[in-house]
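Revision sheet: C-alpha cells.
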Amino acid sequence: MDIQWDDLRIFLAVARHESLSGAGKALKLDPATVGRRIARLEESAGAVLFAKSPQGYSLTDEGHALRARAAEAEQSIIGGIEQMRGQAGRLTGTVRIGAPDGAANYLLPQVCAQICEANPGLEVQIVALPRVFNLSRREADMAIGVSPPASGRLMVQKITDYRLHLAASVRYLARAGTPKSLADLGQHKIIGYIPDMIFDKELDYLAEVGVSHVDFSSNSVAVQLNWARQGAGLTVAHDFALPSAPELRKVLVEEASLVRSFYLIRHAADRRVPRLNRFAEALTAGLRKEVARLEALT
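Predicted:
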C-alpha cells in the first residue's frame, strides 16, 4: 500500500471542511487537485473514504477509522517539528474544539483569541453543535461537555461551575409583569429547548424550576437568548451570556438559581501529545477566568 503523508494531509482537510473547495481554500490548492488526490488515496487504501452528495463530503466508516489514525500522526509530526525548531513552548498547527453553543458563542471566541494572540502559529476551529461529540471518530481534538461521559477511552477534566437564572427583557416585564414566585411562571410566556432535542439531562433547566410548558423553543442557546432580548418571554439564561444582552434582567434570583459544570473531554491517546496538553491547560485556565469575569458583571 503506497500512501503518502501529503495525501493524508489533504484527506484530513476534506474531512474537516466536508468539501473539496473548503479543503482547497485551506490548503491553497485547486479543488480539482484535491479531488484527484483523494481519489488516489482511496485507490491506494482500497476503500471508499467519503460519501459524496450535493451537501458535501461525509466520511464513511472506513474514512472515520483512517481519520483517527491520520489525526494522531498529524499531532506527532507537528510536535516533532516544534521540537526541531526549538518552539516547544509555543503552540502551532490546528486545534479543533467541539462545544455546546452556549460556550461556543459566549466564552470560546475571546478565550481562544487570547491563546492565539500568544501563539501566532496556532489556528483554532470552534465547532458549535447541540449534541455530544464523538472523539473516537476524531470529530474534534477535544470537546467541552456539560456532563462527564460514562464510557469510552477518554480523559475528562472538570473546568468550572457556571450559573444560570431566569431572565427576561425589560420590555417584556413591563408588559407582562415580574413574577413574584415560581408559581407565577404558569402565567408567563416561556422560552426553552425543543423538548425532544435536549441531548443531555443537564440541559433540562425548565424542569428543575418546575416549568412544564414552552411557548418558544430552539435547540440553540443563542436563539433562546435573542428571543428573550426581543421580549418574547422568560428564559433560563447563562449568567456569563447576560453581559452580551443588556436588555435582560434576572428574576426570581433566589428561587430559580441553577448551577452546572463544564468538562474538558479528550481522547485518551492524546495524553502523549505535548502540544494538545499545553493547549488544554491554556484553554481550561482561560475558561475559568472568563466565566468568573463575566458572572461578576451580572
